[in-house]
Amino acid sequence: MKTEKFAAGVRLFAQGDYSEEAYRIVEGSVEISINEGSAKVILATLGVGEVFGEMGMIECSPRSATARALENLTVEVITEQVFNESLAGGGDILVPYLTTIFERLRVTNERLRTAHELLDAHRDPATRAKVKSRALAVATTGSILFEPDSKETRTQSALQKQTLISFPVLFGRRADLVACVDVFSKTRLLIGDRMPFRVSRTHCAIEHEKGAYFIQDRCSKLGSIVNGIPIGGNSKEDRVRLRAGKNTLVLGPANSAIRFILTVPKSG
User: Fold this and answer.
1) Residue 129: what pLDDT?
2) Is 162 helix (H, G, I), strand (E, B) or coil?
3) In the CATH scheme, what architecture does the domain 137-264 have?
4) pLDDT by residue (tens digit) across 183-239?
5) CATH architecture observed for domain 1-136
6) What are the φ/ψ torsions at residue 197 (nearest 5 degrees)?
7) How confident is the model at residue 181 (pLDDT cuts 50, 70, 90)?
8) How far is CA 208 from CA 22, 118, 141, 167, 213, in A?
């Protein structure tokens, strides 16, 4: 397990940041806080043995809080890939238990988002606009028909034609041993790829907001192409709205064979 050291006062991550690591404190303590307008609200002070940042690893969504070292700090750092590799070595009996725990964490995080929405109703317009710009993607239901659109994607069993009903849906590259264990795959489409890789481990997501569907880049290296529009990678755009009817999605460069068709219902 990789360990990292941080000096007192250093931020490990800030509210709104994208990062995918979870941490366990080996030595020292950490302050977890959120920003409410111009005020800082301290949510918790964590000590040796405690874990934080797990929702970033599970959901690959913006951090809902800020973590700062209160004193010289040593932490273990774990990513989704390392977590899955650890379980693959005979620990797969833990998967149903861990999946249940992580689902409870998702629910808890959703309640936090709801609380933020209630607080937002009492903010002044200027503060509300500032906070909204860093808002998290809320889990929603909807309906999109997902289909593979190339020989390479049609041969992968996880990428067959299906209706997606729970959002966001994350696209990412499958690890070599993911067939053994991947406890985070509930809302993911995991794609088999080969070197040179076209798909990043965390590539993009379908998001559903107020009846509209979007493709949101998730810091992919090569980006995606949605209905001919590049997003992510070297593009200045990182988000595009899907139109009613059929949409094309290419992960990677224009010549990539990782291609899909996404059909949005006319009423969606």
Assistant:
1) 52
2) strand
3) Sandwich (2.60)
4) 554 457 889 898 889 999 889 999 998 889 999 998 899 999 999 999 999 899 999
5) Sandwich (2.60)
6) -65, 135
7) very low
8) 26, 21, 8, 6, 5
